[in-house]
Amino acid sequence: xxxxxxxxxxxxxxxxxxxxxxxxxxxxxxxxxxxxxxxxxxxxxxxxxxxxxxxxxxxxxxxxxxxxxxxxxxxxxxxxxxxxxxxxxxxxxxxxxxxxxxxxxxxxxxxxxxxxxxxxxxxxxxxxxxxxxxxxxxxxxxxxxxxxxxxxxxxxxxxxxxxxxxxxxxxxxxxxxxxxxxxxxxxxxxxxxx
Length: 194
Description:
The chain has eleven helices and no strands. By secondary structure, the chain is an all-alpha fold.
């Protein structure tokens, strides 16, 4: 029983450190974020950060993993009830737009700061690839095809657009307009002769 409490407590602390890392990356940038700064901001000792994450690479990797997992889960929850593929895509885009204004620890993924930091440091980028793949699938369904190059290009365009400060400002001020505008990027469904 005590071991489960310790593990749960350690897991919660690890997630808090990952969120703090994402927020500091957003505010300070990759080069200025140090393990000591994350520890101080999270209210733990530097040794605790090293114990939970190993080093800065592990810390950034954990932060990317957590943020991408949260985004994919939010997308999956949002699209669950919609039967129309275009409506599912609109709901997925709505999740991303809301994350820009409501969840700074997730917005850092959409701003590409966290994936860029992970790439620069050599951390695992597979969590970001899973997010892109999930969005690519939603795009592919909306355009009536398989998740091929066209769907991948549109998914990257959606994420790239959300990384621009002007779009993030629009997402904060007028989220519905941002969702409508972003879903217009997606081409009309392809009709296959049959």
